[in-house]
Design goal:
The chain has 2 domains: 2-60 and 155-213; 67-153 and 216-291, Zincin-like, CATH 3.30.2010. The protein has 11 helices and 4 strands. The protein has helices at 2-35, 40-69, 80-93, 126-131, 134-149, 152-178, 186-213, 217-230, 233-246, 272-276, 283-291, and strands at 71-73, 99-103, 110-114, 120-125. It has a 4-stranded mixed sheet, sandwiched between helices. Strand 3 and strand 4 form a beta hairpin. Helix 3 packs across helix 5 (134-149). The longest helix has 34 residues, at 2-35. It is elongated. The chain starts with a helix and ends with a helix.
Length: 293
Amino acid sequence: MRLYSQIDSNKRKTILLIAIFVVFITSLGWVFGKMYNFGYYGLAIAIVISISMSLFSYYEGDKVALWTAGAKPIKKQENPYVYNMVENLAITAGLPLPKIHIIQDQAINAFACGRDPKHASIAITSGAIKKLENEELEGVIAHELSHIKDYDIRLMTIVIILVGIIALMSDWMIKGQLFGLGGRDKEKNNVLIIIGIVLAILSPLAAKLIQLSISRKREFLADANGALLTRYPEGLARALEKIAQENIPLKRANNATSHLYISNPFKGSKNKISKMFSTHPPIQERIKALKNM
């Protein structure tokens, strides 16, 4: 029952997130139109952009995430070890086989993306394949399959595009002022410039809050469900221990996609503020929870 309630919750969050995005972009479009005397054209453009990008993020967001990570698809004959492991765990979980990708990177990491279990992909770093023992790699893959099963992947993938376009539009507003665009009503423009600057400053914070709203609890839940899938919590716990010990950042780590990975793709920080705004819970807490199962 808990799994099905999580799936329903993630589906509702997806709809809510897109609705918030459309309202936010529409508001930006209205301010943009007023600043540059576009009238209601700015609002119309913003509505078209928000709807188009929402659809794009829903259907194509996974491709953006995989491209950003430098993930390359593989066939069974190219890496039968990884392919068979994913296939066996997917069968055990009652899931269709996701598309399997490899990221050429020495860091130990992995992520899953897609809009639903039928259109899912999993990406694993070459470092994880080389450095993890069989049970440890199984734990990592099972964790990602759990994200697929409970529809976390839809929510996480959509965030990438939606957050990006919000930051992009705010950037346009500031650059428009730098290049002297806008009308002659200086008093009105001064007020709107202030609004634009405030939006530009708040957009990165809003992006981070949206990522955090996906909830770090989903990582604990995926850890638990992954451990239940393999029947061996120690495997994933040891994999996380190796990640913590190495603390190697991904070469193509990206703020927009960082929340997708099984662990923070950037080099870990001991700074309390950095941990507070991290998209992942402290790795030691996750290890402790697994060892207590």
